[in-house]
Amino acid sequence: MFPGLPPARRRLRAVRHQLRRRRRLIAATLAAAAVFSALRTLAPPPPDTVDVLVAARDLPAGSLLGDDDLVRRAWPAELAPPGAADVAAGRVLAGAVGRGEVVTGVRLVGPDLADAEPGRTVVPVRLPDAGMATLLRPGDEVDLMATDPGTGESELVAGGVTVLATPTGVPEGPAGGSGGALVVVGTSPAEAVAVAGSALTHYLTVSWR
Question: Are 148 and 181 members of one domain?
Fold first, then answer.
C-alpha cells in the first residue's frame, strides 16, 4: 500500500488511514455519548413513593376484606390519596371499590367513615325489613320514617340523610325484633338524637326522594 517506506512507517500510515476513514463514526459515537450523559444529568430524580393498599379486584359495598382482596403497591407520594388505609384486612367496605383503586379510611366502616360527610354524625340504623336494606346503595339520599307499631302512624324523623354503608348477605323480607338489617347513615347531630330515640320504640323505614 505504501511501497518504499520502512515497515514501521507503513504501519503508522495504515493506522492513520483507518482512523481517517472511521473518524465520522467515532465522532458520532462520542456525540451520542455526550448527549446521553447530559440527559441523565438534567433528568429529574425518580419521585418519592409510599406503600398503599389497593383492591385486587372489584369489591362491592359490604364486603368483608381478606388478605387476598388487597395488594400493597408503591404509589407516587404526591398522588397518594389522603387517608389511605394502612391496614384493611378484616374491615368492612362502606362503599364499592374498583380493581386497582387505593383503599381509604372513608371507604371502610369505622370512625373514618365520618370524613365522608363532614359536619355530619354517623348513625347505624336497623331496618326491620332486611329486603329494604338490600335496595340501598352508599351515596343514596333518603328520608327516615318512624312507624308506631301500635297505631301504625308514621312520622319523618330525619330528611335527606346520606347512606354511607349497606349490608350484604342478609335475608329478604321482614324480620322484626332483633332481626332486620343495619345500614349506616350520615345525619345532623340533632337528627341523630331523634333517630336513636325513635329506634327504641318505633320501626324505622326509608323513603326515596
Answer: yes
Q: How distant, in Å, are the alpha carbons of 115, 116, 179, 195 from that of 208?
A: 24, 20, 23, 17
Q: What's the grid cell of residue 170?
A: 342478609
**Same domain, yes or no: 63 and 17:** no
Note down the domain range covering 51: 45-113
- Number of structural domains found in the chain: 3
Report the CATH number at residue 91.
3.90.1210.10
DSSP designation for 76: E
Per-residue pLDDT of the chain (209 residues; tens, 9 = 90+): 445 556 666 666 666 666 666 666 667 776 777 666 665 665 566 778 888 899 999 988 777 888 999 999 988 878 878 888 888 888 878 777 889 999 888 778 776 776 766 777 888 888 888 888 888 887 788 999 999 888 888 899 999 888 888 876 665 544 444 468 888 888 888 898 999 888 888 889 888 86
- 70 and 146 belong to one structural domain: no
Tell me how far apart the alpha carbons of residues 108 and 115 are, in angstroms, rounded to a whole number. Answer: 11
Q: Cell triple for residue 112?
A: 373514618
Annotate 97-152 with DSSP letters as a single string. Answer: B-TTPBPBGGGBSSGGGGGGSTT-EEEEEEESBHHHHHT--TT-EEEEEEE-TTT-
User: Is 10 in the same domain as 78?
Assistant: no
